[in-house]
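ENTRY TYPE: paired fold submission
RECORD: A
CONTENT: sequence, then structure tokens
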Amino acid sequence: MINIKAFEVNYFSENTYLLYDETNEAVLIDCGCMEKEEERELSEFIADNHLVLKRYLCTHLHLDHIFGNEFVYKTYGLSPEAHKADVEMLPSPEKQAVLFGIPQRINTVSVKKFLSGGEIVRFGNAELEVLTVPGHSPGSVAFYNKENGFIIVGDVLFAGSIGRSDLWGGNHDILLAAINDKLLSLLDETIVYPGHGAATTIYDEKMNNPYLIDNY
């Protein structure tokens, strides 16, 4: 059984996810922690629950999802894992901060391992399948677990909305195609955990998402 703990962090209200199972092995997804208090809340939860953080995964490399990369590296010795396309096509975190007008200094932590579609991420007795879902960013990926019936999608799909496609390497048509092909093909009861906002289900988005109704 996979447990999912969400932390809403930074002034973009980004969802950072911590996943762990009965072995206490864990993976962290999209650490957006900016403030010391946010870092403390995350690290105390890990310590209090005796979790062993094994990998640090990124759905994509937009700044609001990677503010905490340096913290994760310095605290747990884990480098971010992301799709190669985002590494090659997105501006560095430092440049993104300038373009977004964010005064806080952001240091790049190099991606040491590239994630690929179809890859299986293992921790404890649990598995996550990597799905490629480009369009919001060129290398956006989602993490799917069929057994527990959930998918973590980053900024590709939201409750009642979809990701923006006007940032570097984004493409609206590619985004819609990826959602239809990779996400809406999942079981209706699959719980969708987005990068911002509340969780939803595949069924709810098929039935109610105004961006998808005409496309599904």
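RECORD: B
CONTENT: sequence, then structure tokens
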Amino acid sequence: MAGNRRFVGGAPAHPNQDAARRAETAPAQNPFAVMFGCSDSRLAAEIIFDRGLGDLFVVRTAGHVVGSEVLGSVEYGASMLDCPLVVVLGHDSCGAVAAARAAADGEKPPAGFVRDVVERVTPSVLAARAAGRHEEEILHEHIRSTVDLLLERSRILAERVADGRLAVAGLSYRLADGSARLVASRGLSRDSAPV
């Protein structure tokens, strides 16, 4: 979160982005976090969190939808690379969320495999609407749902959270100002939660 504050303030430090870091990480990686976010081109994790080579193990899908490949990738980062943190990163103006809202309103869903993405986001839209939440809360509901889904579907992740070896956080990113804020956490105490 300190890196995000630097990015928002226009004073990024660009850590770990030099030849020395490239040489240091060539033999092996030791990232401190798994970053699972939306594929949106405006959501480049290393840039918006002011990180560099070897810092983040990044997994991205449209609408940060979870499938077996995502679960395997996130589990790899948490268990094989021993990352103590998994971050789910959603953002405002998400095309997948907008398409799911439109489908929930009765519009024809997109064709091809894009339809699968929309179908996986739609339960979050319906849950937020059923709870009477406003539009921004639809995104937050989807982020919280993704955090919960990772832990429901992955015994490895759930056990690591229960053992205190892993925390899973959901962050909401604002495209206009570049800020990220915490909207969900599992395994984080209030004292250690990012601000």
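NOTES ON RECORD B: The CA atoms of residues 19 and 70 lie 30 Å apart. The chain has one domain: 2-186.
STATUS: closed
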